[in-house]
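Quick illustration, no need to memorize.
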Amino acid sequence: MRNFFRNRRPVRLQTWMLLLIVAVLSVALAVTGYLIATETADRTRENQREKAMNIASAVSRSQLVIEELADPKNSGDIQSYTEAVQEDTGVDFIVVMDNHHIRRSHPVEERIGQYFVGNDEDRAFQGESYTSIAEGTLGKSMRAFIPVWNEGEQVGVVAVGILMNNVEDTVFGSQIIVYVGTAAGLVVGVIGAVLLTRRIKRTLYGLEPKEIAQILQERDAMFASVREGIIAINEQGEIAVANDAAMELFLSAGLPENPVGQQVASYLPPSDLKKVLLDQNIEYDQEQQFNGIDIVVNTKPVVVNGQTAGTIATFRDRSELTALAEQLTDARTYADTLRAQTHEFMNRLHVISAMVHVESYKELQEYIDYITVNYQNEIGAVSRLVKDPVLAGYLHNKLSQFRENGVDVKVNGDRQLPVLKNTKKMEAIITMIGNLSDNAIEALANQADKRVFITINHINGQFHFTIQDNGPGLKPSEREVIFEKGLSTKGSNRGYGLFLTEEALGKLGGTLEVSSEKGEGTVFDVIIPYEGDSV
């Protein structure tokens, strides 16, 4: 038995709803039908009583009946009169009695002249009009008694009766309509319940409550685990859903803790973010500043049956993305440095191997001395001046790039640069150094004597970086446009390096000065705030 109940499939939501609706509808219709049928039965019985009383009253006022009861010598035919009235009105009997309770009319003529049967007529002979139910010669019946008066004197009684079987048949006839209506209502209700439950099932995409609860739990768990802030905005402009990350972001921006149920127009302060959310356009990777916080926003309208039902928006603190980009940049820098050093090391090994093979030991000694001097001048200088491993690795890579392009580079400085404390600035610093270095290489591309001088110092919490080349230099008119996007003295589709350099310096809060004369080379002096950690 336990296994039977354990293995039973759970009752579906549609079945539960159908059974519940049918049960409620059945009880409601049954109670309503019973009350209406009872009321109808009482009203029908009352109508029958009134009908009997009205007929008895009419007969009691008949001049024929009054005269014959007042003077038995009158030859009026009460029996024929009452038979005609009985046939016209449909009652079961009309009995006219004199003051001695003797029948003067009866549906069965043989019983005329006999005493009235039922023992419920006495009150009528005392002048009272009423109805009663009693057993007579024709069976149990509902009777109406009306006294007959002649000039203020009671001369008899009229009794009009309807057999109870006929009364109940009339009552049932009036109730059958109620029962048929109740049954029809139940059938219509069941059909409506079936259609309603099917519609609800389709609206819920065929899911059962347990499955819906599981989906909601999974959604909540997913929202909680996602580091991006997620909010859903309905078509009324209200924030319908917001995960923990979104609430933390709003809280850090100084907004109330729970935005759910709030209007976007009133909850968010005037900003570009507010415009993006309310425009209901598809936007990807939009950088916005929100109450001093740099964020990246993605928005996409939710379209249901061809109509926009709201908007889904995701937020991410730009500093987190910057940190990821820095990690990727660091890894790429290390990889590029190792690749360049490996390539350079293999070339030197080939040279040394060839000199050993041909026994050119004197030239080998000179070559090794040259390598050592270059190492001390370049690698040694960088290692001595720059203690940040990421920045040092990047500078080693750029020095290798200088050598590969035939540029003689010198690195010097007096104040050691410590490890960068705020790593979020590393990307902008690398962008600045890389673009200025690439600019120097390109400036020296078309001349035989290629020389670059790099100076690195850390003075009063500032990074001083100077790079000087002996290239062709710049005209005054060229110096004015070198930082504009897409403009370059080297041709079309260029002019982005120095633009990005100036943009990076703007993020760092640094300054850049350019000194250049035509034919005398160019000098870039950079000063940026640089807070370092002690090694």
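The longest helix spans residues 13-60.
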